[in-house]
């Protein structure tokens, strides 16, 4: 079957896991009623805390994690692939993994991915922001076979690194997930253009489930969860930042069609970089 129905959950996650888990459970049931076979939630779906102190109080280790147990049951009860965009996992060194988790329709964990690219920056007018002080970056890109398509993993800030997406597509990904919690200013400036670019470059469907609205941790996020087709057109979008469900049908034949029309993946070549001396003033 070349066409598959998927759903994105747009959330306004708070700092308490119980309310966020209940929201996911509700939306998964709605998605199943709409015919979806795959459901994606945003980055930091389970606990959206702003700093290490908030995470230390609420985030749990991977083993015997009660959220994982409950989400497995949600996937099993609704007979669908449930892709938790990410949750914070407590690590032994006191930091956290920003981890994406895919459950199959039997409730089994079939793949995990730890966010590779971390936002470390010196921002004008405010203190330096060091995501690496709280999170440990991953070092492994992930592509997994589902019953419906080959799925590539990424999380939020990863979308600014085109090389990751090319690697996922070259490994066979037809669909790439981009769960996110984009700020409002960067969302207004870059959200649509970056996601459309990643779809066009790879010839993949790009699925971006987003956080939206003002959160209990004090942050505001952009929303506008969207689905981008391999040719770059937005085929479904949440209009604004309110919580809800975005449902779309993916025609997987469009992946091969886009790559045939513009065979950029096949035409890629390795190259060296020549650093030439300056030529002085031109006269």
Automatic annotation (TrEMBL):
Q: Which domain of life is it from?
A: Bacteria
Domain CN hydrolase, chain residue ranges per copy: 4-252
Record keyword Hydrolase present: yes
InterPro entries in alphabetical order = C-N_Hydrolase (IPR003010), C-N_Hydrolase_sf (IPR036526), Nit1/2_C-N_Hydrolase (IPR045254)
**Gene3D superfamilies per UniProt:** Carbon-nitrogen hydrolase (3.60.110.10)
Which PROSITE patterns does the annotation name? CN_HYDROLASE
Checking Pfam families in the record gives: CN_hydrolase
Whether Coiled coil counts among this entry's keywords is: no
Q: Which UniProt keywords apply?
A: Hydrolase
Q: Which residues form a coiled coil?
A: none
Q: Which GO terms describe its molecular function?
A: hydrolase activity, acting on carbon-nitrogen (but not peptide) bonds, in linear amides
Q: Which SUPFAM superfamilies does this one have?
A: Carbon-nitrogen hydrolase
What's the protein here called?
Predicted amidohydrolase
Q: Organism source for this protein?
A: Pelagibacterium luteolum
> What does UniProt list as this organism's lineage?
Bacteria, Pseudomonadati, Pseudomonadota, Alphaproteobacteria, Hyphomicrobiales
